[in-house]
Amino acid sequence: MSNIKYILGHFEDPDDLMHGIDKLQENSVSIYDVYTPMPIHGIEDKLGIKRSRLGKVAFGFGLTGTITAISMITYMLVIDWPMNIGGKPHFAFPDFIPIMFELTVLFAAFGMVGTYFFANHLAPGRAPRVMDLRATNDRFVIAIDARTNTSHDQIDNILKEAGAVEIKHNERKYVSYE
Amino acid sequence: MSSHHESILREPLVTGENITYSKVTEDILVPVENKPNKAWWIGFIVSALGAGLWVFSVSWTFWFGIGEWGLNKTVGWAWDITGFVWWVGIGHAGTLISAVLLLFRQNWRNSINRSAEAMTIFAVICAATYIISHMGRPWLFTWALPLPNQFGSLWVNFNSPLVWDVFAISTYFSVSLVFWYTGLLPDIATIRDRAVGTRRRVYSILSFGWNGSVKTWQRFELVSLILAGVSTPLVLSVHTIVSMDFATSLVPGWHTTIFPPYFVAGAIFSGFAMVQTLLLITRKVMNFENYITMFHIESMNKIIILTGSIVGVAYLTELFIAWYSGVEYEQYAFLNRVSGPYWWAYWIMMTCNVISPQLFWFKKIRTSIALSWILSIVVNIGMWFERFVIIVTSLHRDYLPSSWVMFYPSWVDVGVFIGSIGVFFTLFLLFLRVFPAIAMAEVKLLLKSSSDQAKKKLIAEKVVDSGEAEYYLESLEKYDSVSPKVAEFQKV
Predict the structure, then answer these.
(1) Which residues of A touch B174 (CB under 8 A)?
(2) Which residues contact residue A25 at a Cβ distance below 8 angstroms, ignoring those fewer than 6 apart?
């Protein structure tokens, strides 16, 4: 066989793309990934991608923030240096709520976004792993691993029939390293 | 896709003919990918001069101390805190548009959220500079944080709203920044993949290696949603806490329980006015008429009417409660606001915030670009005076009549204020050049469902009720970006 690594099907319309995914799946062609310039709703179900667990992550981080705030304030105002402010209780819980809330939000937001960046390998300076430069602009691209799916002509035909406007046979995985 | 079933009765969010995904990219990236035009340079030079004035006035304050401001022993808090609250308030619209409107699935937010969020960040930067410069000894700003120190450690007093404010503002700023930047990643990737050479390398670093794969987008949408969910109570908490800086004191005129909701409504009110001021110009200068349409302008004006009316009700409630409380100090404080030596400030506030926004009940005014712009400026003036009235008028006649005074700003006060506006516009104009002012990916989402082109296609295919189609075409008449000829042609 040739040294083609990936077959890319370019679509101009998200509906055609969805149709293309259906067609490929009917013919038992495995899809490596799909690159789109905007989120496509419903594509996760089609590709069998599980629900993201980032919500739970955010909750965990938020809870950490709440506990951090209450323990910090209690330590400082009640244990380490209690001050007599008009004879009022040192553990003035209602006064602690605003900062507990703020730290909950702060920890939840940063923890969740940090986890997201970590899980998706997003970091400043990271070389973009892009298979086609138009996938961030106006093309909806289905990438198929050419090594595991060997009947290239059949794949080309399926893509063409589904409405692909362009089909590329790439010999390198990522074009963005040039 | 569920988004395909938008009712024909809804007005379009994207207008123009032959709008394709690539055209959206092209149109929005014009200011980023090309050399700036004359209008930008003029605006930038004027703003940069203002920012220079800010640097000079703030340096002057740092060098000689806050005695250089017009403060005296009775009015110890004046333009500095007025400016601070004004800027924080302006910031609120950005979060409201990006978070609250996202939770309510208001799709019209998609084309204005990016610049409104940028505005939030720049406004909070301006507000933060006021906090630092009014500290007197700004190099000791770390004393506001609970850090171990050589005094024991002597901790900050967590019972104080001023400490809450430190946490609220810094959380608000950093979470807004994260929200804004995460949203920018896909658009920065678009710029990166179209650029060459050094530009490409720079945007490549900024893009964090975004590639638009399914998983990236899936998590991106969840992250946006959760960030919106946590930002919504956050934005409410921020101005609530700002209002508590006043409300937990014992000064008549400040010591009121109505402050938190009243301040939040005022913040959204002034923020939307500022968004309107900026976007009406941006849209014209950058040719964004097809993306920021008359529908967006009208919707924002409706929010201005609503929040302006809430603010109006709050003003009247304050007056009523002052009288009804039977507390003579409280009664005097409000009588003094309305008819004392600062009566003109009170009535400027009343006119600009309560009376003039009511003009937006008229559709002609609401859909007029020139009048919307003028009224948005009027609202900003009114909201500045609101803070001035609350702060200075409550302080200048305190419990001891022998220390009653007037407040006169010094040139440094004026310089810091005008300068902060310069800083704000400098940052905003730089933003317009560096990042896309409209979230491209989010506008692309609307193309197949909410664009004029998609709706006209439905009409041409005769799949919608003809009466409803008629209604839709009539609603297009207010749009300045849809040529009347096309509308006529469609009717026939």
Answers:
(1) 106, 109-110
(2) A31, A46
